[in-house]
Amino acid sequence: MLSSVLPRIPLAHLPTPLEELPRLRAWLQTETGGERSVPRLLVKRDDQTGLAGGGNKTRKLEYLFAQAIAQGADTVLTEGAPQSNHCRQTAAAAAKTGLRCILILGGTAPMLEGGNLLLDRLLGAEIIWAKDEERRETLKNRAAAAKDAGHHPFIVPYGGSNPVGAAAYAAAFEELSTQLQKQGWQADHVIVASSSGGTQAGLAVGARATGFAGQLHGISIDQRAGDLQSRLADLAAETAALLGQRMDFSADDFIVHDSYLGDGYGIVGPAELETLNVLAKTEGLLLDPVYTGRAMAGLFDLVRQGDFGAGDTTVFWHTGGQPALFAYAETLQA
User: Fold this and answer.
1) Among residues 3, 84, 194, 196, which one is catalytic?
2) How many CB atoms lie within 10 A of CB 171?
3) What is the pLDDT of residues 234-248, one digit of tens each?
């Protein structure tokens, strides 16, 4: 099994649930007026990984923190946006393992800290603000300063998206495959939000390792398809090699939809507002405003275009991020 190839420390509640969304399916059938087919809809609940609000990064951090601890680290550093789910989960993993955590966040400190940023503080992270274009350099400088001060720093990559982090999602696809088999289901499509690339690249490795015959769709959150596909191909190949799998990947192996970028990263538009409201009211399921809200908007549009068949089964991979909802209260109440 791919999950046993690399060292990991237990941080997540696994396996995460795989649930059906019958009321959402009924809503979409009404929405399309019966003119287009709506597949069976399932959701893979990685928002339920459990670490300080959960999310997909926790799986990656199990492997990355195992690496950090093996190297004798006492301090972890990473970077992200002010409402970064990755930074929140990194801070939580550091608290759980007894490591010091430094977060480099882009922009300037707000007057009122809410959402993920509030949780970062509660979890004990040291927060350093930097201009977006200076974030990575600030990260390197802080790591060097920590080393000079006698600490043993470990830089967690942006989004946890290097081969070690992506390997967690190769194992996650094995988990999904086992769940589908137990239920007697066969997935035709898997849809996931894609940004730093580690989740989709890892899933691609796991899909190939398990013989998945369906399609894996990435809904791009902030990049054009060509740029993201190239990164995914490189990262998937490196991840497969790390796991001892002989696999080749090209950009053409990845389905990336970039028609849902809206007005940019972190900006909530009508499409995200629709999905947030519909999922809450039909299934009692909370999406986040940046990633899963946009990815679900992509799924809605693909259904409306008739890209799926009524006999298909589509899995939406919920990557978490609900704490960010509280930082968008004004937008969501407008």
Assistant:
1) 84
2) 24
3) 999 999 999 999 999
Spatial distance between the Cα atoms of 200 and 216, rounded to a whole number of angstroms: 8
List, for residues 245-267, the tens digit of each pLDDT value: 999 999 999 999 999 999 999 99
Residue 269 tokens, joined: 């538009």
- Reported as half-sphere exposure (CB side, CA atoms, 13 A), residue 116 has a value of 28
What does the alpha-carbon distance between residue 70 and residue 93 come to, in Å, rounded to a whole number?
15
Tokens representing residue 221 in the block: 């959150």
Instruction: Report the C-alpha gap between 196 and 160 in whole angstroms.
Output: 8
**What is the predicted pLDDT for the residue at 81?**
95
Q: Given pLDDT bands bounded at 50, 70 and 90, which one contains residue 99? A: very high
pLDDT of residue 58: 98
Active site residue 4: no
DSSP type of residue 82: T
Peptide bond into 15 cis (omega under 30): yes
| pLDDT attached to residue 83 | 96
Is residue 46 within 8 A of residue 85, CB to CB? The reply is no
What span, in angstroms and rounded, lies between the C-alpha atoms of 58 and 12?
6
Identify the CA nearest to 139 among candidates 189, 187, 102: 102
Does the pLDDT value for residue 73 go beyond 70? yes
Which positions ≥6 away from 91 have C-beta within 8 Å? 52, 101, 103, 119, 120, 123, 124, 125
Beta strands 126-130 and 100-106, pairing class: parallel
Give the mean pLDDT of 14-38.
Answer: 91
d(CA 308, CA 314): 8
Burial environment of residue 190 by CB neighbours within 10 A (0 to 12, 13 to 18, 19 or more): buried
Which residues, other chains included, contact 307 with Cβ-Cβ below 8 Å and sequence gap of 6+? none
For 140-170, write each residue's pLDDT tens digit: 999 999 999 999 999 999 999 999 999 999 9
Q: Are 104 and 146 in contact (CB under 8 A)?
A: no
